[in-house]
Recover the amino acids of this structure.
């Protein structure tokens, strides 16, 4: 059926590729563009914007020969290159940057913004925020595809119809599915494709080298910034409740100085720092309760409300933070961690069985981390004193872990019910558990491919891109498992590398000159202020992302503390008992 312009349906709006700038339609198009230009829009030659397209942009720039088709919905801050097409019914909203030759299929959604999701207000009252979307040159986006905020799509990419793109896409990739996954590389074996990839790696390596040089140059200033009133604090000028004297900031300062400078924090003596860090270790248990280790705090007797040394809370984490910080300074803990060494295998297993590995997977993984680290420190430093090589309950712990790993997920924790991030607890717990056990002891994971599948599914969760979800913990808890599993398997390495490249470039942008990294860079609260914990963790994250991509040499540093990629100890093989006839018992 033929429709006339009077009917409100015009062929040219739905077939904008038929537009001829020399035709009579050019006059109507000039009027249309003039109306938009009155609000600041800029247009190249041969541009076409359908009369019935909803174009309500804060800023709009369109390059030569590009078009916006009928009933497209276009808002926000848009830069559109030359020879681009936004086909009928497409939605392009938020902060969007397009290169040249980007083709967006009908009914697709390019959404460069997101709603906030804090728990203290209804979602409709929280407003939106944006990281923006970047689309490279020569990109084809199939019909009904969706690209979510924060994604960068490389040059020459093809995105399949109905794909949901939640993470960065490398150049020349073909992606499809929900969430979208790389299914092949368009370059195949073409020589110039290899040259392009080599160029990209060279550019990223140069960024890493420049970043590390800047961080080393500023290390002294950022450490001095977090030293107040005779003690290290996590963040300077924090509120009174956040400035309670603590041990961890001292350990973080030691780690940062070792990482960037190869020395103790400027102005401090290694022996004095060892004295402070170990002053509160309980000789009987080997645990280190919270307390003030400044000159003032060490001259005061313990307060009556100071918690006793136990295997819970800060005393548990001090096994890691203090244990490693002291080793970086050339010392060791003065006492073994007897509170762990004296546990029987039966006691450890009963404790693990009693834990909630669903709702409390992170806490359960943290408990394993502390137990295994205590065993590793005892083996490394107190084998002769403790007997049995200092192993304690480690074999019982590792036996239980190997038997209870889930072969379908590769994890120990279970997913949470929707709408919470389904795998957040389980993946975060997996990192803590495997850091202290398999990674720290140099042992292979039970099910590396299954773990990669689960971790990559979690990496695509939208929560991780929100101000509340984008934290050092949540990124570390993805990259470390991928890095660790990659030692055993190349399973889905292309997808992992695409994620790592995007995360690495974003992390480098979050460095604040003279201040370091914030734990949660996009948070409006205190975690959005740069401090020692955020800086130590993100420096280690940057290394692991770079090493996963084969680029860590460009940084010129390698973590040696809590996030060291090298095992603290390696368990010696245990010979199986033999029968009198020589066969295995």
């Amino acid at each position: 059926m033929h429709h006339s312009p009077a009917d409100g349906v015009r062929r040219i709006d739905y077939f904008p590729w038929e537009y001829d700038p020399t035709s009579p339609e050019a006059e109507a198009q000039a009027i249309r563009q003039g109306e938009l230009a009155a609000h600041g829009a800029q247009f190249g030659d041969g541009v076409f914007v359908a009369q019935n397209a909803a174009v309500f942009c804060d800023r709009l720039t369109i390059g030569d020969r590009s078009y916006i088709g009928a009933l497209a919905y276009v808002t926000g801050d848009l830069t559109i290159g030359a020879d681009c097409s936004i086909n009928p019914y497409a939605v392009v909203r938020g902060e969007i940057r397009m290169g040249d030759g980007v083709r967006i299929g009908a009914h697709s959604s390019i959404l460069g913004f997101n709603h906030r999701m804090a728990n203290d207000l209804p979602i409709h009252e929280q407003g939106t925020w944006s990281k923006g979307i970047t689309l490279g040159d020569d990109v084809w986006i199939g019909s009904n595809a969706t690209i979510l905020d924060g994604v960068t799509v490389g040059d020459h990419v093809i995105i399949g119809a109905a794909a949901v793109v939640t993470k960065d896409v490398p150049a020349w990739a073909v992606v499809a599915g929900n969430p979208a996954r790389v299914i092949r590389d368009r370059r195949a074996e073409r020589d110039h494709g290899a040259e392009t990839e080599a160029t990209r790696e060279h550019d990223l390596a140069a960024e890493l080298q420049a970043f590390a040089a800047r961080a080393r140059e500023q290390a002294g200033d950022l450490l001095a910034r977090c030293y107040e009133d005779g003690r290290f604090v996590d963040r300077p000028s924090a509120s009174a409740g956040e400035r309670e004297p603590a041990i961890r900031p001292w350990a973080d300062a030691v780690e940062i100085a070792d990482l960037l400078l190869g020395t103790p924090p400027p102005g401090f003596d290694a022996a004095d720092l060892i004295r402070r860090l170990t002053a509160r270790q309980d000789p009987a248990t080997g645990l280190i309760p919270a307390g003030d280790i400044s000159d003032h705090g060490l001259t005061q007797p313990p307060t009556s409300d100071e918690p006793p040394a136990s295997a819970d809370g800060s005393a548990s984490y001090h096994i890691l933070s203090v244990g490693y910080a002291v080793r970086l300074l050339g010392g060791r803990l003065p006492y073994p961690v007897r509170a762990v060494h004296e546990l029987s295998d039966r006691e450890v297993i009963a404790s693990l069985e009693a834990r909630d590995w669903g709702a409390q997977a992170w806490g359960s993984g943290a408990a394993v981390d502390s137990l295994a680290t205590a065993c590793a420190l005892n083996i490394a430093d107190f084998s002769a004193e403790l007997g049995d090589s200092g192993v304690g309950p480690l074999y019982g712990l590792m036996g239980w872990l190997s038997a209870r790993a889930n072969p379908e997920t590769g994890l120990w924790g279970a997913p949470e019910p929707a709408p919470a991030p389904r795998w957040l607890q389980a993946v975060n717990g997996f990192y803590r558990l495997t850091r202290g056990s398999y990674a720290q002891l140099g042992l292979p994971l039970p099910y590396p491919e299954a773990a990669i599948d689960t971790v990559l599914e979690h990496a695509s969760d939208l929560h991780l891109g929100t101000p509340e979800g984008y934290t050092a913990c949540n990124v570390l808890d993805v990259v470390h498992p991928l890095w660790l599993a990659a030692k055993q398997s190349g399973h889905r390495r292309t997808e992992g590398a695409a994620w790592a490249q995007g995360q690495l470039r974003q992390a480098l942008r979050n460095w604040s000159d003279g201040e370091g990294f914030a734990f949660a860079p996009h948070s409006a609260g205190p975690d959005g202020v740069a401090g020692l914990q955020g800086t130590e963790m993100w420096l280690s994250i940057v290394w692991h992302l770079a090493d996963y991509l084969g680029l860590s040499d460009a940084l010129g540093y390698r973590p040696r503390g809590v996030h060291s990629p090298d095992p603290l100890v390696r368990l010696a093989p245990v010979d199986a008992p033999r029968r009198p006839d020589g066969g295995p018992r």
